[in-house]
Design goal:
CATH architecture of the largest domain: 3-Layer(aba) Sandwich
Mean pLDDT: 93
CATH class of the largest domain: Alpha Beta
Largest sheet: 6 strands, parallel
Low-confidence stretches: none
Helix content: 25-40%
Strand order of the largest sheet: 1-4-3-2-5-6
Number of strands: 14
Distance between the termini: 28 Å
CATH superfamily of the largest domain: HUPs
Radius of gyration: 22 Å
Order of helices and strands: EEHEHHEHHEHEEEHHEHEEEEEH
Structural class: alpha/beta
Length: 314
């Protein structure tokens, strides 16, 4: 039986772990293919030399504290969503440090010393341009010098490229805003999805013959409004479906909502955490002249989504 990933909150928690520790350091928003290259290197080191692989990250995103005017308004994954993604790829533990003014003010050398003083750190993997510590003065050269002093190896990974440019969370967010979900999926290594709790809605879909789950989304990046072929996931179980993202102009809606109809699913979803993958855009949102016209269009949308998934490998 596979053990669930441990979640830690401070450096001292590393002292509770036994054996060698192989760490991957970074923000890892979205856990995209570039991030996975860094994490996979730490996993390979753990498999080769023994011990466990852990990811060290920060919450909130450091730029939100250091340069809020330049910080992204939406992320590719909340901390909990990031944790589930890391668990799925076999990371043994996640150390999510609270990014405070005090942590930001730590000199790079002190940051590393605090990290390696509490456990048997044998390797650290980072992107080759990763910077850390007060004033971003820490870099790979400093890490390697400290590795020689404290007995850990340093693996610095070059960026992973896609269509001639480096993969970045910024590029992926822009692709999602543009509705270029296939492009985003190639950089992520998976279809892009958001997570949210299913809450009570107006239950209009039920009266139209298409019961929907009203998903309360948070700060994760959303694609353009419209109707989407989606995949809904509860844990390791998934269903295909169709979703509407938008303000529902036919019923004079004003707030942006995400309503998901899962095919061949009857279970009550209220209060459950649902991940919704936006796989393909079917059409823009529009206002219909009547509820009957809306009902007819929803049936066509469902047919289009089923047809898409029956011919797609996504």
């Amino acid at each position: 039986m596979i053990k669930p990933m441990l979640r830690l909150q401070k450096f001292n928690d590393l002292s509770e772990l036994t054996g060698a520790l192989h760490l991957a350091l970074g923000v890892f928003d979205g856990v995209h293919m570039g991030h996975r290259a860094v994490i996979n290197t730490a996993q390979q080191a753990a498999a080769r030399d023994g011990g466990s692989c852990g990811v060290v990250t920060f919450d909130p995103h450091p730029i939100r504290l250091l340069a809020p005017d330049r910080a992204p308004k939406q992320l590719l994954a909340s901390l909990d969503h990031k944790a589930r993604l890391l668990d799925e790829i076999g990371v043994d533990f996640l150390l999510a440090l609270s990014f405070t003014r005090m942590l930001a003010a730590l000199d790079a050398e002190i940051f590393v010393e605090q990290m390696v003083a509490t456990g048997q750190v044998k390797s650290i993997s980072v992107g080759e341009d990763w910077r850390f510590g007060n004033g971003r003065k820490g870099d790979v050269s400093l890490l390697r010098a400290m590795g020689e002093r404290h007995g850990f190896a340093v693996n610095a990974l070059p960026p992973v490229m896609h269509q001639g440019e480096r993969i970045s969370s910024t590029r992926i967010r822009q692709s999602i805003r543009d509705g270029a979900m296939a492009n985003a999926a190639e950089m992520l290594g998976r279809p892009y999805g958001i997570e949210g709790i299913v809450v009570k809605g107006q239950e209009l879909g039920r009266t139209l013959g298409f019961p929907t789950a009203n998903v309360a989304f948070g700060e994760e990046q959303l694609p353009p409004d419209g109707v989407w072929a989606v995949r809904g996931r509860l844990g390791h179980v998934a269903w295909t479906g169709v979703a509407n993202l938008g303000c529902r102009p036919t019923v004079n809606g004003t707030a942006r909502v995400l309503e998901v109809h899962l095919f061949d699913h009857q279970e009550d979803l209220y209060g459950k955490l649902l991940e919704v993958e936006f796989v393909k855009s079917l059409r823009d949102e529009k206002k219909f002249a009547s509820i009957d016209e809306l009902r007819h269009q929803i049936s066509l949308d469902a047919i289009a989504a089923r047809d898409f998934f029956s011919h797609s490998s996504l």
